[in-house]
Design brief:
SH3 type barrels
């Protein structure tokens, strides 16, 4: 199953964003979100940065994801 995940932008380069999620960093295509900056929370999916999200939305999504992982056991 594929899930969209929130992460924090830690670096930018030529249309790409390095995003940290759970202490893991991955490069994503960021051409659809040219206004993001280092430190922003973003929603990612299948190699793309889909959108910038608020700190509150990122915290809520991370909590739901953690809860789902714990219940899957």
């Amino acid at each position: 199953m594929c899930m969209s995940r929130p992460g924090r932008v830690v670096a930018l380069r030529a249309g790409e964003a390095e995003v940290e999620m759970n202490d893991r960093r991955t490069w994503f295509n960021a051409l659809m979100t040219p206004d993001i900056e280092v430190g922003d929370w973003v929603l990612t999916h299948t190699g793309l940065v889909l959108s910038e999200i608020s700190d509150a939305d990122a915290a809520a999504a991370n909590a739901l994801f953690q809860e789902a992982m714990e219940s899957a056991g």
